[in-house]
Amino acid sequence: MEYCRRCGGPVDTVTLLGKARGRCGRCGHVEYRDLAVAAATVTEVAGGRVVLARRAIRPGFGQWVIPGGFVEAGETVAAAAVRETAEEVGLHVALAGFVGVYSYPRSRVAVVVYHAVLARPGEPAPQDGESFEARGFPREEIPWDALAFDSTRDALRDFWGRPNPG
Ligand SMILES: [Zn+2]
Q: Which CATH number does 35-161 carry?
């Protein structure tokens, strides 16, 4: 099942101008299936913990994800990563490095992931109704079997796979 990126409603396949498109059954949004760009952070907080949020929306309902979201026209990818981290988990961060770009044949989103550190002291907390919970996980407690997206899994692997993480 595919869900509307605007309202979360179920998407049906319809034929428009001879091409198969996804159209939301709830709000009518037509999905043109260009690759969208999202920005996200692997944010480190005290004790080397990494911040994850547990999603309260589909897709990935009830599962954990690094903070991130779609890049808006008129902002840089890096600025979107900082903005989305503040909006989702309430942390003001500074970007400290680049983790990777994650795209997959079956996904409509390419996720650009940065390493971030706190620019101001704070503890993660859900902000906007998109998450049930947000907290820092030590590496050995990452819920690998309950991650929402391949991009979160792969970014965390790459982050810790580097010679000197952090
Ligand atoms: Zn919709």
A: 3.90.79.10
Across the chain, mean pLDDT equals 92
**Which token pair is 119?**
């620019």
Which residues place a Cβ less than 5 A from the ion ligand 1?
4, 6-7, 9, 24, 26-27, 29
Distance 85 CA to ligand 1 centre (A): 24
User: Given this model, what pLDDT does residue 166 score?
Assistant: 45
Is the overall model pTM greater than 0.70, yes or no? yes
Ligand 1 centroid distance, CA of 162 (Å): 39
Query: What's the CA-to-centroid distance between 125 and ligand 1, angstroms?
Result: 27
Residues of the chain with CATH 3.90.79.10: 35-161
Instruction: Write the CA distances from 17 to 2, 4, 14, 25, 85, integer angstroms.
Output: 21, 20, 10, 19, 39
